[in-house]
Design brief:
Largest sheet: 9 strands, mixed
Low-confidence stretches: 110-120, 123-137
Helix content: 10-25%
Order of helices and strands: HEEEEEEEHEEEHHEEHEEHEE
Strand content: 25-35%
Distance between the termini: 129 Å
Structural class: alpha+beta
């Protein structure tokens, strides 16, 4: 570079450094990198979907079945982060934060109830339905005409020791009109079915103990211990009937 060119460059650099036109240099904004945070996996709240209300003690507690285990849950206690808030004759209310869940009494799995309520196909003229024996195992059914039924002491002991095994085979709800517990459906292998209790019957008392809730059922079953006879008072077809039994 010649001396003239060097002098010219110095003059240009000095002119730019002086910034006679007050030009602000352009600022380049470089955006900060965006960091995406992976959301934490959320466990869905099923709202006590697996919980079944088996019975109630109004204002006190409820028998609840959860994953195959039945326990007595008192009002104010928690199950799966839900607090039992109130218990009535036919339902119980649970709360978790602002969410509430109401469960209604169910004796038996709903899927089995639908299966039991499905009418059997009408037999064709070439088919002859097999007759059902009144005496099934160690139980003889009673009927309202006065025929006494029979039940073995072993069967009574089975009822006393494992009442929930039997209650899972029926579904009962309170009947306001008849005053008692109405049998909504009942499995064929139920002891009560073999004793002569039918779907649609309203059980009003056993051994003189009135039926209004699960506590009455437990008390009536306990009353069968060491009994030689017992009676079941029902309403069938809108009329009162008595089923009487002898314990052998």
């Amino acid at each position: 570079m010649s001396a003239a060119e060097t002098e010219k460059k110095r003059g240009l650099d000095g002119f730019l450094a002086a910034n006679p036109f007050k030009i602000s240099p352009e600022k380049v904004n470089v955006p900060e990198p965006v960091v995406t945070k992976e959301p934490e996996p959320q466990i869905p709240d099923t709202g006590l979907a697996d919980l079944i209300l088996r019975g109630t003690l109004p204002g006190v507690g409820a028998w609840v079945e959860n994953k195959g285990t039945t326990t007595l849950l008192l009002v104010g206690k928690n199950i799966e982060d839900y607090k039992l808030m109130s218990v009535k004759y036919s339902d119980a209310m649970f709360r978790k934060g602002k969410k509430t869940v109401t469960k209604y009494i169910t004796y038996g799995p709903l899927a089995q109830a639908k299966k039991e309520e499905t009418p059997a196909p009408t037999p064709t003229p070439t088919q002859t339905p097999a007759p059902q024996a009144a005496n099934t195992g160690n139980v003889v059914a009673a009927d309202p005409t006065g025929k006494e039924g029979e039940v073995s002491s072993e069967t009574v002991q089975q009822l006393v020791q494992n009442p929930f095994d039997e209650l899972k085979r029926i579904r009962i709800r309170p009947s306001e009109s008849a005053g008692g517990l109405e049998v909504q459906w009942i499995q064929n292998d139920s002891i009560l079915k073999r004793l002569g209790v039918q779907k649609g019957d309203v059980i009003r008392s056993v051994n003189g103990i009135p039926f209004t809730n699960m506590g009455d059922i437990a008390n009536s079953i306990n009353s069968l211990m060491n009994s030689e006879r017992f009676d079941v008072e029902v309403t069938r077809g809108g009329k009162p009937a008595a089923l009487r039994y002898v314990v052998r």
